[in-house]
Each structure stands twice: as structure tokens, then as C-alpha cells.
Specification:
Layout (H helix, E strand, L loop, with lengths): L1 E5 L3 H10 L4 E3 L2 H6 L5 H15 L3 E5 L5 H14 L3 E6 L2 H13 L3 E6 L2 H10 L3 E4 L1 H6 L4 H14 L5 E4 L5 H9 L4 E4 L1 H6 L4 H17 L2
Parallel strand pairs: 1-2, 1-8, 2-3, 3-4, 4-5, 5-6, 6-7, 7-8
Helix pairs in contact: 1-3, 4-5, 5-6, 6-8
The structure holds SN-glycerol-3-phosphate (G3P).
């Protein structure tokens, strides 16, 4: 399972990279705005800085346009920044057209805002490299987000789609574990959620005991 970090914060990305388990980054307009980045040139520059940190890792950069021509124009500009850029396209009618266009041109895409298996199927048919089902946001409205991962996984397996399942809106460690059990290719989440996988009280108490026993062995 690949771990992507869901942030546009360079310090957090660097920290995740330094941990040695980072496979990529996903961003969205809300996350970019949170970093206070303004203006097209600064946005493109910021994406380049992200790419520089993650090396070979994929970096999802989202288009803002919602019409086909606009998405194509923005997507080509984003793809030009770096070979690791994956153009993030919303699950709307023109988005599906744009995914097909990019796919034919060899530009990789991540279809975002996926909330149903039908949407995932459509994106995969159009040639999306990734689909991003939003697990946490479905849970927020009393719908089982993990169940959606299971459905998409079954469908993609039935037809050997190469599209990767990128579980997004991942909010806690059990989301990661459940997605891993179901074979999701990627989980994207904040660094804090990745770090929460570290924790177990028996690890803490066990280490404490080892260290106190070691003290007894010192001459
Ligand atoms: O990658 C999508 C993600 O940013 C959404 O997460 O927590 O805002 O639902 P959240």
C-alpha cells in the first residue's frame, strides 16, 4: 500500500519524506488556500517545491476549471511542471471527457470527489490513473465510506482495470487498516494519521521495561 500525504504544507511533506515511508502527495484547492498561496505563478512554484521534496513520488495537482477546454488548458500547464505531476480532475461530465483526453495523451490523472462505485467505474473507463473515493466525508453523512472501497475494489478486479484506488479523506488509523485489508492501492491522509499507526501502549510499556532493566546491567 502506498502512503500519500494530503497537504500542501512543505514542512509537513518534508517531515513525512524524512520518515522514509512517503510515496506521494495529494493537494486540493482548500489545502493550497490553507497555505496562503495566491496567484497562478506562486501556485505553480509551490507545486514545483512539493515535487522537489518528494523526488519520484506522485504529486496530485487539481484543476480549477470545470469546463473541458479549461481543464485541458490547466491540466497541460500543471503536467508541464514536472513528470511526477498527476492532474486531479473532479468527477463531473466534462471531467470525464478531460480524463479521456489526458489519458490518450499519456498524462496521468486522479479523478477526485468520488462518492459512488458508479462514478469510480466511469472514471476508470475514461482511463483515470487513480480514483479518489472520499471515505471520511461519506462517514460524515452516516454512509459507510469503507464499504465504497470494497465495492470499487470488486469492480476493478472483475474487469482488470489498471486504475488505482486512492482512498482519500482518511481521518484515523482504522481507516488506513480497513483500506489496506481491502487492497486499496493508496491511502492519502495528514501526517498525524500516518504517525498514529505507531502507537501501542504495550510498545510503550515494553520499551520502558527494557530500558529500566538495561539500567540494572550497567556496571
Ligand atoms: O484528498 C481529499 C481530502 O483532502 C479530503 O479530506 O478530511 O477534507 O474530507 P477531508
Amino acid at each position: 500500500m502506498k502512503f500519500f500525504i494530503d497537504t500542501a504544507n512543505l514542512q509537513e511533506i518534508q517531515e513525512a519524506y524524512d520518515l522514509g515511508v512517503l510515496d506521494g502527495v495529494t493537494t486540493n484547492p482548500s489545502l493550497m488556500a490553507k497555505e496562503g498561496i495566491k496567484g497562478k505563478n506562486n501556485i505553480l512554484k509551490h507545486y514545483r517545491s512539493i515535487c522537489d521534496i518528494v523526488g519520484d513520488g506522485d504529486v496530485s495537482a487539481e484543476v480549477i476549471a470545470t469546463d473541458f477546454e479549461g481543464m485541458v488548458r490547466e491540466g497541460e500547464e500543471l503536467a508541464d511542471i514536472h513528470e511526477t505531476i498527476v492532474v486531479k480532475v473532479p468527477m463531473i461530465r466534462d471531467g470525464v471527457k478531460a480524463i479521456k483526453y489526458f489519458s490518450d495523451k499519456g498524462i496521468r490523472t486522479n479523478c477526485t470527489l468520488i462518492f459512488s462505485s458508479g462514478q469510480a467505474l466511469l472514471a476508470a473507463k475514461a482511463g483515470a490513473s487513480f480514483v479518489s473515493p472520499f471515505v471520511g466525508r461519506l462517514d460524515d453523512i452516516s454512509t459507510d465510506g469503507i464499504e465504497l472501497i470494497s465495492q470499487i475494489s470488486d469492480i476493478f478486479t472483475n474487469y482488470d482495470f489498471e486504475t488505482e484506488i486512492l482512498a482519500a479523506s482518511i481521518r484515523h488509523p482504522m481507516h488506513i487498516i480497513k483500506c489496506a485489508e481491502l487492497g486499496a492501492d493508496v491511502a492519502t491522509c495528514p501526517l498525524s494519521v500516518i504517525l498514529s499507526l505507531l502507537n501501542h501502549p504495550l510498545t510503550d510499556s515494553g520499551l520502558k521495561k527494557f530500558l529500566s532493566d538495561y539500567e540494572k546491567m550497567k556496571g
